[in-house]
Write a structure and sequence with these properties.
Strands 1-5-4-3-2 form a 5-stranded mixed beta sheet. The model has no long low-confidence stretch (mean pLDDT about 95). Helix content is about 30%, strand content about 30%. It is of the alpha+beta class and about 100 residues long. A hairpin with a 5-residue loop joins β3 (about 55-60) and β4. The chain has a single domain, classed as YaeB-like fold (2-Layer Sandwich). The longest helix is centred in the middle third of the chain and has 18 residues, at about 25-45.
């Protein structure tokens, strides 16, 4: 099982954590913990989450209004973006 991330995912995650840190110092870390957990699920079972178009799948976080898109690669998955549910649905789709 291989897990890859588009370089912009680090920026996406930092942006999300910046939203939660002012609310509670622990909330940003909880967001990252949940993200890591759902990414591991997607990596173990790539077909588990909803298809988005022909290239991606969408995995929703349960506790936070965020999701990430990933695509299956030969060795595992590649996470291409993390975005808030209210963000423009076209945002980030050009990423590979």
């Amino acid at each position: 099982m291989s897990l890859e991330f588009h370089p912009a995912v680090a920026k996406d995650l930092a942006e999300a954590v910046r939203r939660y840190d002012p609310v509670s110092p622990r909330l940003g870390e909880q967001f990252l913990e949940e993200f890591r957990h759902v990414v591991k699920l997607a990596a173990r079972h790539p077909g588990r989450f909803h298809p988005v178009g022909k290239r991606f799948r969408r995995a929703n976080l349960k506790r936070f209004p965020y999701h990430f898109l990933y695509r299956e690669i030969e060795e595992g998955i590649r996470v291409t973006l993390v975005r808030h549910h209210r963000r423009d649905p076209a945002y980030g789709l050009e990423r590979e």
